Amino acid sequence: MTETFSTDLSGSRRTRWLRRLLASGTALAMTTAALVAGTTAPAQAATVAGIDVSHWQGTINWASVRNSGVEFAYIKATEGTSYRDPRFNTNYVGAYNAGVIRGAYHFALPDRSSGAVQANYLASNGGAWSADSRTLPAALDIEHNPYGAMCYGKSQSAMRTWINDFLATYRSRTGRYAVIYTTTSWWTSCTGNWTGPWGNHPLWIARWASAPGTLPAGAPYWSFWQYTATGRVSGVSGDVDRNHWNGTRARLIALANNT
């Protein structure tokens, strides 16, 4: 879900290729046994459809999106500590009014400021939560750095500290455990197979393939799976990321309401 800081690189061929490489799993050498061991329910069992969007999708007809069968959406709110997606407010309200269960996401830049600073920025700029059956806990999008070194110049221990700082601060501000969006390859390289957060924080795995594949170390299952970046949905012009929720709509509403 790479997007913008001061210069938006997400439209470049380099960034799109890099994301495709990482999310497709070609950056990892996986055996068939590892794939089976790291996956829970089969893809066909996860029938609750979703998308994630930012200003790159332009004007969205959310009624058409909902009528096409999409039931949830993650919408970009913030990046770093100085960028707010210019279409966030329109998308967030539009999705809600159309009956789409929605949440905000923050693109992390761990080399720009502390996790606490960025969590507070998210919570103050669209990432707040309310028990209204349509608001999901916000997501921390932490993945390959589109602006420089893959792990943002941080050691594995420093990255774990940064993530913990973000998650704890968001929890303190909103009362919710943030969702974590990542790829297994990035998580392995940049956190050193850290197993710490998966007891409470839902995993949103990115892998553009026919199965979620091997999950990050310690993750018992995936909650959301971004399975393609080239999906098409009525109401959205051009490509859009498509996702599955690993459960029923009733369970998704339960996550939204923290019940």
Protein architecture, described:
By secondary structure, the chain is an alpha/beta fold. It has a single domain (13-257), classed as Glycosidases (TIM Barrel, Alpha-Beta Barrel). It has eight helices and nine strands. It has an eight-stranded mixed barrel with strand order 1-2-4-5-6-7-8-9, surrounded by five helices. Helix 5 links the parallel strand 4 and strand 5. The radius of gyration is 17 Å and the shape is globular. The model is unreliable at 4-17 and 26-44 (pLDDT under 50).
Q: Provide the number of structural domains.
A: 1
State the helicity in percent bands.
25-40%
Distance between the termini: 28 Å
State the CATH superfamily name: Glycosidases
Helical stretch count? Answer: 8
Shape: globular
Please state the second-level CATH architecture: Alpha-Beta Barrel
Characterize the biggest β-sheet: 8 strands, mixed, barrel
Q: What is the rounded Rg? A: 17 Å
Please sum up the structure shown.
The chain has 259 residues and is an alpha/beta fold.
Feature tags:
eight-stranded mixed barrel; 8 helices; TIM Barrel; alpha/beta; about 260 residues
Q: Could you give the topology of this structure?
A:
Elements: H1 13-24, H2 32-37, E1 48-53, H3 62-67, E2 70-79, E3 83-84, H4 88-97, E4 101-107, H5 115-124, E5 139-141, H6 156-174, E6 179-182, H7 184-191, E7 203-206, E8 224-231, E9 240-245, H8 249-257
Parallel strand pairs: 1-2, 2-4, 4-5, 5-6, 6-7, 7-8
Antiparallel strand pairs: 1-9, 2-3, 8-9
Helix pairs in contact: 5-6
